[in-house]
């Protein structure tokens, strides 16, 4: 596995199968039940993007995604390209970019 080069691509555009409303609903249920879930982190720190906004942030990645993909950006990306929540980042972030292969 290659070390992180701190380009920030992983946080500039993220995608989930769920819409923002679905993410918040899943996070609420898993919090109450005490079940660990990436959705709790996503509901708190991932914000919706339009496809146009996402294309400006990371066109190479966004072109590979379906037109109806739910797109997000993470507010834990520091100005220096480092994750400000590295120790508590969700599994989907820990596996980037290999989780989709």
Outline:
The chain is of the alpha+beta class and 101 residues long.
Topology (elements, then pairings):
Blueprint: H1 9-12, E1 14-16, H2 20-33, H3 38-45, E2 46-49, H4 51-57, H5 59-62, E3 70-74, H6 91-94
Antiparallel strand pairs: 1-3, 2-3
Helix pairs in contact: 2-3
Can you write the helix and strand succession as a string? HEHHEHHEH
β-strand amount: 5-15%
Low-pLDDT parts are none
SSE class: alpha+beta
The Cα radius of gyration reads 13 Å
Features:
alpha+beta, 6 helices, three-stranded antiparallel beta sheet, 101 residues, globular
Description:
The chain is α+β, with helices and mostly antiparallel strands and 101 residues long. The protein has helices at residues 9-12, 20-33, 38-45, 51-57, 59-62, 91-94; strands at 14-16, 46-49, 70-74. It has a three-stranded antiparallel β-sheet with strand order 1-3-2. It starts with 8 loop residues before the first helix and ends in a 7-residue tail after the last helix.
